[in-house]
Amino acid sequence: MKNENLLKEVIPTESELKEIIVNYVGKTLNPDSDEITVEQIIDVFAEQFPEFLLALAEENWINGYTQALSDSRKMAAPMENLKHDTQELHRKQKTEQV
Fold it and tell me: What's this model's pTM, rounded to 2 decimal places?
């Protein structure tokens, strides 16, 4: 995870949807404080609405996989050029030694 502190971040209720979610999680978990974290929200969603988290996870996985394929294609061309350049250098060295 890029931002490990994100799970511990307290969520402000800046929008109607956030307020609904924070209030629901608060009522469900009854935490010691009135602060609700991202981790608590994820826990409640995982228990009560796993399909939602699964859809996000699948999309994230597909995006990561697509990015990896794109990166590997971009790296393939420079690696092929490097291989060609190395072979050419070896040929030149052999002809100079003869």
Answer: 0.61
